[in-house]
Amino acid sequence: MSKNPDSQRFTVLLQRWHRGDGAALNDLSKQIQNELHRLALKLMHNESAGHTLQPTALVNEAYLNLLNCDVSYHNRVHFFNLAGRMMRRILVDHARARGSAKRGDGIKCITLEEQHLGAIENIDILALNDAMDALAEFDQPKAEMLELHFFAGLTTAEIAELYQVSAKTIERNTRLAKAWLRQTLQPA
Protein backbone atom coordinates (compact mmCIF):
# COMPACT_ATOMS: atom_id res chain seq x y z
CA MET A 1 0.00 0.00 0.00
CA SER A 2 1.63 3.27 -1.08
CA LYS A 3 1.20 6.22 1.21
CA ASN A 4 0.03 9.66 0.18
CA PRO A 5 2.97 12.16 0.35
CA ASP A 6 0.70 14.77 2.00
CA SER A 7 -0.29 12.19 4.60
CA GLN A 8 3.36 11.35 5.22
CA ARG A 9 4.27 15.04 5.60
CA PHE A 10 1.35 15.51 8.00
CA THR A 11 2.55 12.52 10.04
CA VAL A 12 6.10 13.92 10.25
CA LEU A 13 4.73 17.28 11.40
CA LEU A 14 2.56 15.54 14.02
CA GLN A 15 5.58 13.68 15.35
CA ARG A 16 7.68 16.86 15.45
CA TRP A 17 4.87 18.69 17.24
CA HIS A 18 4.55 15.88 19.80
CA ARG A 19 8.30 16.24 20.50
CA GLY A 20 7.75 19.91 21.31
CA ASP A 21 8.49 21.60 17.96
CA GLY A 22 6.29 24.71 17.96
CA ALA A 23 7.09 25.41 14.31
CA ALA A 24 5.53 22.07 13.37
CA LEU A 25 2.29 23.09 15.11
CA ASN A 26 2.30 26.37 13.18
CA ASP A 27 2.68 24.39 9.94
CA LEU A 28 -0.15 22.05 10.94
CA SER A 29 -2.61 24.58 12.34
CA LYS A 30 -4.06 25.92 9.11
CA GLN A 31 -4.25 22.44 7.59
CA ILE A 32 -5.97 21.06 10.71
CA GLN A 33 -8.45 23.90 10.94
CA ASN A 34 -9.32 23.70 7.24
CA GLU A 35 -9.92 19.95 7.44
CA LEU A 36 -11.95 20.26 10.66
CA HIS A 37 -14.04 23.02 9.12
CA ARG A 38 -14.71 20.85 6.06
CA LEU A 39 -15.84 18.03 8.38
CA ALA A 40 -18.00 20.36 10.48
CA LEU A 41 -19.70 21.79 7.39
CA LYS A 42 -20.37 18.27 6.15
CA LEU A 43 -21.86 17.20 9.49
CA MET A 44 -24.01 20.30 9.87
CA HIS A 45 -24.89 21.29 6.30
CA ASN A 46 -28.66 20.86 6.74
CA GLU A 47 -29.00 22.64 10.07
CA SER A 48 -31.20 25.68 10.36
CA ALA A 49 -29.54 29.09 10.27
CA GLY A 50 -30.51 29.71 13.91
CA HIS A 51 -28.98 26.51 15.25
CA THR A 52 -27.07 27.28 18.44
CA LEU A 53 -23.99 25.26 17.49
CA GLN A 54 -22.37 26.60 14.35
CA PRO A 55 -19.66 24.78 12.36
CA THR A 56 -17.00 27.28 13.46
CA ALA A 57 -17.83 26.67 17.13
CA LEU A 58 -17.65 22.91 16.55
CA VAL A 59 -14.26 23.35 14.84
CA ASN A 60 -12.92 25.57 17.60
CA GLU A 61 -13.98 23.22 20.38
CA ALA A 62 -12.60 20.15 18.58
CA TYR A 63 -9.36 21.98 17.74
CA LEU A 64 -8.80 23.06 21.34
CA ASN A 65 -9.51 19.53 22.56
CA LEU A 66 -7.02 18.11 20.06
CA LEU A 67 -4.34 20.60 21.07
CA ASN A 68 -4.81 19.85 24.75
CA CYS A 69 -5.03 16.09 24.30
CA ASP A 70 -1.99 14.22 25.62
CA VAL A 71 -1.85 11.72 22.77
CA SER A 72 0.97 10.69 20.51
CA TYR A 73 -0.72 10.72 17.11
CA HIS A 74 0.58 7.90 14.93
CA ASN A 75 -0.35 9.49 11.61
CA ARG A 76 -2.87 11.72 9.83
CA VAL A 77 -5.53 9.01 9.87
CA HIS A 78 -5.13 8.47 13.62
CA PHE A 79 -5.32 12.23 14.21
CA PHE A 80 -8.52 12.67 12.21
CA ASN A 81 -10.00 9.53 13.74
CA LEU A 82 -9.67 11.21 17.12
CA ALA A 83 -10.95 14.49 15.66
CA GLY A 84 -14.04 12.71 14.34
CA ARG A 85 -14.70 11.11 17.70
CA MET A 86 -14.35 14.47 19.43
CA MET A 87 -16.75 16.10 16.98
CA ARG A 88 -19.24 13.28 17.54
CA ARG A 89 -19.02 13.76 21.32
CA ILE A 90 -19.42 17.52 21.01
CA LEU A 91 -22.51 17.12 18.80
CA VAL A 92 -24.01 14.50 21.11
CA ASP A 93 -23.30 16.56 24.24
CA HIS A 94 -24.83 19.61 22.58
CA ALA A 95 -27.94 17.64 21.54
CA ARG A 96 -28.30 16.20 25.05
CA ALA A 97 -27.99 19.64 26.63
CA ARG A 98 -30.61 21.10 24.28
CA GLY A 99 -32.85 18.08 24.73
CA SER A 100 -32.72 18.24 28.50
CA ALA A 101 -33.21 22.01 28.46
CA LYS A 102 -36.26 21.81 26.22
CA ARG A 103 -37.49 18.29 27.00
CA GLY A 104 -36.80 16.98 23.54
CA ASP A 105 -37.61 20.11 21.57
CA GLY A 106 -34.80 21.01 19.21
CA ILE A 107 -32.90 17.72 19.49
CA LYS A 108 -30.16 18.03 16.89
CA CYS A 109 -30.78 16.09 13.72
CA ILE A 110 -28.21 15.48 11.05
CA THR A 111 -28.66 14.43 7.48
CA LEU A 112 -26.32 11.76 6.27
CA GLU A 113 -25.76 11.88 2.56
CA GLU A 114 -27.46 9.22 0.48
CA GLN A 115 -24.13 7.45 0.05
CA HIS A 116 -23.87 7.08 3.82
CA LEU A 117 -27.07 5.30 4.79
CA GLY A 118 -29.37 5.34 1.84
CA ALA A 119 -32.73 7.04 2.14
CA ILE A 120 -32.61 7.88 5.85
CA GLU A 121 -32.49 11.63 6.37
CA ASN A 122 -32.64 13.95 9.36
CA ILE A 123 -31.38 11.38 11.80
CA ASP A 124 -31.50 12.48 15.41
CA ILE A 125 -27.84 12.64 16.46
CA LEU A 126 -28.75 10.98 19.77
CA ALA A 127 -30.45 8.08 17.96
CA LEU A 128 -27.44 7.74 15.66
CA ASN A 129 -25.11 7.82 18.67
CA ASP A 130 -27.15 5.12 20.44
CA ALA A 131 -27.21 3.01 17.28
CA MET A 132 -23.45 3.42 16.82
CA ASP A 133 -22.89 2.42 20.46
CA ALA A 134 -25.11 -0.65 19.98
CA LEU A 135 -23.21 -1.57 16.83
CA ALA A 136 -19.92 -1.18 18.74
CA GLU A 137 -21.13 -3.68 21.35
CA PHE A 138 -21.98 -6.09 18.57
CA ASP A 139 -19.04 -5.37 16.22
CA GLN A 140 -16.50 -2.76 17.39
CA PRO A 141 -14.38 -2.66 14.19
CA LYS A 142 -17.39 -2.01 11.95
CA ALA A 143 -18.61 0.75 14.28
CA GLU A 144 -15.15 2.33 14.22
CA MET A 145 -15.07 2.18 10.43
CA LEU A 146 -18.40 4.00 10.19
CA GLU A 147 -17.28 6.57 12.74
CA LEU A 148 -14.14 7.19 10.70
CA HIS A 149 -16.29 7.65 7.61
CA PHE A 150 -19.19 9.68 9.09
CA PHE A 151 -17.47 11.81 11.71
CA ALA A 152 -13.82 11.93 10.66
CA GLY A 153 -14.58 12.16 6.94
CA LEU A 154 -11.97 9.57 6.02
CA THR A 155 -12.09 7.85 2.65
CA THR A 156 -12.25 4.11 2.20
CA ALA A 157 -8.57 4.12 1.20
CA GLU A 158 -7.58 6.02 4.34
CA ILE A 159 -9.56 3.66 6.58
CA ALA A 160 -7.97 0.69 4.78
CA GLU A 161 -4.54 2.23 5.43
CA LEU A 162 -5.36 2.60 9.12
CA TYR A 163 -6.53 -1.01 9.47
CA GLN A 164 -3.87 -2.30 7.06
CA VAL A 165 -6.41 -4.19 4.98
CA SER A 166 -7.67 -3.82 1.42
CA ALA A 167 -10.18 -1.16 0.43
CA LYS A 168 -12.53 -3.97 -0.66
CA THR A 169 -12.52 -5.33 2.91
CA ILE A 170 -13.43 -1.88 4.25
CA GLU A 171 -16.18 -1.48 1.63
CA ARG A 172 -17.67 -4.87 2.50
CA ASN A 173 -17.55 -4.21 6.26
CA THR A 174 -19.02 -0.72 6.00
CA ARG A 175 -21.78 -1.96 3.68
CA LEU A 176 -22.80 -4.50 6.33
CA ALA A 177 -22.56 -1.95 9.13
CA LYS A 178 -24.60 0.61 7.16
CA ALA A 179 -27.29 -1.99 6.51
CA TRP A 180 -27.42 -2.78 10.23
CA LEU A 181 -27.67 0.94 11.09
CA ARG A 182 -30.27 1.57 8.39
CA GLN A 183 -32.48 -1.18 9.88
CA THR A 184 -31.91 0.06 13.43
CA LEU A 185 -32.71 3.68 12.54
CA GLN A 186 -35.78 3.02 10.40
CA PRO A 187 -38.86 4.61 11.94
CA ALA A 188 -41.28 2.06 13.37
UniProtKB/TrEMBL annotation:
This is Sigma-70 family RNA polymerase sigma factor. Keywords: Sigma factor, Transcription, Transcription regulation. Belongs to the sigma-70 factor family. ECF subfamily. It holds the Pfam family Sigma70_ECF. It comes from Rheinheimera aquimaris. SUPFAM superfamilies: Sigma2 domain of RNA polymerase sigma factors (SSF88946), Sigma3 and sigma4 domains of RNA polymerase sigma factors (SSF88659). InterPro entries: HTH_Sigma70_ECF-like (IPR053812), RNA_pol_sigma-70-like (IPR039425), RNA_pol_sigma-70_dom (IPR014284), RNA_pol_sigma70_ECF-like (IPR011517), RNA_pol_sigma_r2 (IPR013325), RNA_pol_sigma_r3/r4-like (IPR013324), WH-like_DNA-bd_sf (IPR036388). Residues 8-185 form the RNA polymerase sigma-70 ECF-like HTH domain.
